[in-house]
């Protein structure tokens, strides 16, 4: 069976299988390279998390959705993440300055991280995207 046309292009079932495989590889690479991140509503409730976040923290998505962000980051208990419709300016500043935060994984272990976040408008509602930057073991001294 000839799977190539006269110009050498793949045809038929082979082309379809190749396209699917290419998409699978692209999706796998995207998942591997996406940063650990959470999507939060304006009250700090977790709406979603990336696969890399679930791997880093040891949770299933269903364990996290509708939990308050302070479950994972104790320093955010009682902190308004959104103020006057904008991301909390003090938190934003501290994140840009490289402040170290404490994160708690599923086993209850505490480890240092840096955070960055951005407020995104989606369907008329504000969503906060919180991106986690785990610190290497040599960077763990002096957790603020």
Explained architecture:
This protein is of the alpha+beta class and 144 residues long. It folds into 2 domains: 1-33; 35-139, Beta-Lactamase (2-Layer Sandwich). Helices cover 28% and strands 27% of the residues. The chain is built from 4 helices and 7 strands, in the order H-E-E-H-H-E-E-H-E-E-E. Strands 2-1-7-6-5 form a 5-stranded antiparallel sheet, with helices on both faces. Strands 3-4 form a two-stranded antiparallel ribbon. A hairpin with a 5-residue loop joins strand 1 (37-40) and strand 2. The protein is globular and about 35 Å long.
Number of domains: 2
List the secondary-structure elements in sequence, H or E.
HEEHHEEHEEE
CATH architecture of the largest domain: 2-Layer Sandwich
The CATH class of the largest domain is identified as: Alpha Beta
Helix count from the secondary structure assignment: 4
Question: What is the CA-atom radius of gyration, in angstroms?
Answer: 21 Å
């Amino acid at each position: 069976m000839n799977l190539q046309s006269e110009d050498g292009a793949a045809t038929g079932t082979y082309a379809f299988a190749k396209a699917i495989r290419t998409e699978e590889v692209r999706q796998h690479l995207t998942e591997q390279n996406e940063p650990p991140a959470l999507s939060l509503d304006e009250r700090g409730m977790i709406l979603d998390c990336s696969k890399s976040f679930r791997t880093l923290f040891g949770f299933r998505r269903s364990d996290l959705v509708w939990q308050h962000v302070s479950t994972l980051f104790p320093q955010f208990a009682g902190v308004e993440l959104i103020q006057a419709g904008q991301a909390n300016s003090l938190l934003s500043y501290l994140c840009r300055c490289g402040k170290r935060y404490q994160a708690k994984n599923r086993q209850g272990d505490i480890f240092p991280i840096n955070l960055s976040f951005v407020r995104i408008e989606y369907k008329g509602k504000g969503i906060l995207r919180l991106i986690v930057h785990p610190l290497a073991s040599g960077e763990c001294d002096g957790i603020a």
